[in-house]
Amino acid sequence: MEREKIGRKRRGIAVLTLAALFFWYLPQIQVSRQIRKEQEEAVEMYVREEKEENKEENEKSEEVQEQEPGSTDKNLFRTIDFAGLRSKNREICAWLWIPGCALDVPVAHGQDNAYYLTHDAFCRERIYGSIFAPCDTPEDFSERHTILYGHNMRNGTMFNNITNYKEESFFTEDNKINIIMNNTLYEYEVFSVYVKNVSEVNLAIGFASEDEFINYAYNEAEESLYKKDVDFSAEDNLITLVTCSYEFTDARTIVVARRCN
Question: I want to staple 234 with a disulfide (CB 3.0 to 4.6 A). Which of 22, 51, 90, 210 is the partner?
Fold first, then answer.
């Protein structure tokens, strides 16, 4: 009899635990579906991909005159309808595409660094916010170094998958960061990934000299969990992706890449 009571009690606890987990995960599952659905809709509406043969024909053509908004750059097989995007939000400045991280999203550039923490790129109030460049970054990414922020959603969306770069196999593969602006594709090769307390993160833009920029790039390379053989020059252009991390309180995952085209 006593064993039966203990057994019923344990089964009751197990049921309550499963119920609690279900009701905890359910909202996250719903949010995940909402994010993925909205991102898929954005890609469907604003991204057009060409077949490789069409791309080659465009490259060979010498009859292409001055391009109109939405036309395809000779270096690009993905065309982004920036005119359509900016009709929804004039602060959309670029498109971020990292196939290995399931990222294919517009990038916003706000008037402050708080708005896009709680609003998506189409100005809809969302707990997962948007990928955005800080307000002190030129919206055309003309600085030698550009920083992008995004939430690390535990459901695997937004900047969650950039933490894949902390895996050595993923870091060493050809998982480039792609930025599309003015229908030109810029590829960035990741050379550094590390985790630090937010109070110790020292990201810099607007360098006073070429030497200061080059020293900064080498310092970021030294921070990396894994090393790549890289040489930097004043002509280089860097991009850094920043998101929360869960190794310890106030941790941040930092991914740094250099433009390679």
Answer: 210
